[in-house]
Structure formats: C-alpha cells, structure tokens
C-alpha cells in the first residue's frame, strides 16, 4: 500500500477520499467487477472508507482485524449492505475485539474466530482461516 513498507509516501492517500480513489483505481486497472475485498490489519485504512462509500461495488467484505474501525460510527456501519464476514484470531485480544465492537453494527454480518491464532490469523492458522473464508465465499454464490 502506498506509504507503507518500502513504498514511497504519496499525497493521494493522505485522506480517506484519496484512499477510496486509489483502491477504486486499482480495482478498475485489474478489471475486477464486484470483488470480495479481504482487508487485514493496516489495509483497513483503505478498505473501510471504500466499503462505506462504494460498498455496492463489492460482492463481499472480509475485514481481518482491520485498523481504523473506530473512525466510523455505528450509524455509518448500519448503512452497509455488503455481505460481511468479520474474521479474527482468538489471541488477538486487542485489534480483533476492537474491530468486532465497531463492525458488529453491519447488518447481517457473520463472525468467524480462528482458534489459537493471533493478529495475523491467516499466517498462524492458514487452514482454519481459509476454511472460514471459503465457507463465506460459497454462501455468496
């Protein structure tokens, strides 16, 4: 993501609006129509504003203990119509539970907790993570 890791910082992603535009541009360049957006950790800064502004362009949303959930209100989350699977590791007692507290306001959401996994539950328990993710994806078909 721009501004993270070894990537150069860019003014475009300095605001939520800019991050929405960036993610929209990436999805368009990839030719993706109605993708399922999986958003672990820091990608929440991009995915959450995109979900709230353009969630109708997504077939589904899978937040994996994303950052930034407290930046939005329960009322904003209640407007989301995108099928959502809230996923986190049971050992992620900080960000996972914090994200759940905010995201639980999304109507009709599902929750999957990966046992014996920390914040990066997809790395700690990849089979359990993929089982939950694939189960959600099958429900979307």
UniProtKB/TrEMBL annotation:
Please provide, in alphabetical order, the Gene Ontology terms of the cellular component aspect for this entry.
cytoplasm
Which keywords does the record carry? Answer: Cytoplasm
Please tell me where this protein is predominantly located.
cytoplasm
InterPro entries from the UniProt entry: AB_hydrolase_fold (IPR029058)
| Gene3D superfamilies on file | alpha/beta hydrolase (3.40.50.1820)
* Compartment list: Cytoplasm
Q: Which residues cross the membrane?
A: none
Which PANTHER family does this entry report, sorted A to Z?
PROTEIN ABHD14A, PROTEIN ABHD14B-LIKE
Q: What is this protein called?
A: ABHEA protein
Gene designation per UniProt: Abhd14a
């Amino acid at each position: 993501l721009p501004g993270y890791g070894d990537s150069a910082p860019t003014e475009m992603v300095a605001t939520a609006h800019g991050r929405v535009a960036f993610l929209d541009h990436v999805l368009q360049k990839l030719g993706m129509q109605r993708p399922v957006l999986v958003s672990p950790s820091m990608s929440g800064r991009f995915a959450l504003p995109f979900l709230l502004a353009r969630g109708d362009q997504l077939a589904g949303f899978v937040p994996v203990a994303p950052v930034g959930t407290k930046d939005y209100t329960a009322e904003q989350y209640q407007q989301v119509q995108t099928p959502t699977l809230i996923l986190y590791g049971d050992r992620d007692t900080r960000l996972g539970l914090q994200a759940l507290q905010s995201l639980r306001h999304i109507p009709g959401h599902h929750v999957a907790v990966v046992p014996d996994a920390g914040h990066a539950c997809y790395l700690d328990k990849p089979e359990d993570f993929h089982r939950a993710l694939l189960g959600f994806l099958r429900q979307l078909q």
